[in-house]
Design brief:
5 helices, 11 strands, four-stranded antiparallel beta sheet, 17% helix, 28% strand
């Protein structure tokens, strides 16, 4: 970030290689993909979408593994038991690019003939619980941030996402900061753009 005090013009609309900081990638995975893997939503979506996320489907590149784990005591989404009284369990949602798990309540596990993993949550004590994520994250790998930047020929690095939204296929990300990357170097900051795309194409 040595040269990031240099402010460039706004990015021209187009396709870029996009690098996300941990916070922004968390927004993307939670808001765009995580909800698709909550088993109670399976009943409300068209069949062509369900074909994309059913167990065993190749969804993404081999480098991507996504986990939901309510047992991380230091994280805000953690719990020992869900709101149906079942033990919250770590679930590998996507393993090396393949869908390997869904999040379940008692009802969804029974309807889909799968094992309950304790992901029923209630917004208030008087409301019925429904399936929701706990701590959802991308499993880290060995590539360093510097290596990613070096491998980027023309891209943008997005930081500090404010929020994300999705229609379960197409998404938008709204970062607070953005930096232009050219020929393996961060060359300056740019006005934060809205990043958008189709989640299945991006993965």
């Amino acid at each position: 970030f040595r040269d990031c005090s240099r402010r460039l013009k706004n990015l021209a609309p187009g396709d870029y290689e996009v690098i996300l900081d941990p916070e922004t990638s968390g927004f993307l995975i939670h808001e765009v993909l995580g909800h698709l893997l909550e088993a109670d939503l399976l009943y409300n979506h068209p069949s062509y979408l369900m074909e994309k996320i059913k167990l065993g489907n190749k969804l993404a590149v081999d480098e991507l593994t996504i986990i939901d784990d309510p047992c991380l005591s230091e994280q805000g989404g953690s719990y020992q038991f869900d709101d149906e009284g079942n033990i919250g369990r770590k679930v590998y949602l996507v393993t090396e690019g393949t869908v390997t798990g869904l999040l379940h309540s008692v009802e969804t596990a029974k309807r889909l003939n799968q094992k309950n993993n304790g992901h029923a949550r209630s917004l208030e004590y008087h409301l019925p619980p429904f399936v929701r994520m706990s701590n959802t994250y991308i499993e880290p790998r060995n590539t360093s941030f510097e290596d990613i930047i070096t491998d980027t020929r023309r891209g943008v690095y997005l930081k500090n996402c404010m929020f994300a939204k999705s229609d379960m296929q197409n998404f938008q990300l709204f970062p607070k900061e953005a930096y232009y990357v050219e020929k393996g170097k961060i060359v300056g900051s740019v006005a934060p753009p809205v990043a958008f795309g189709n989640i299945f194409e991006v993965l």
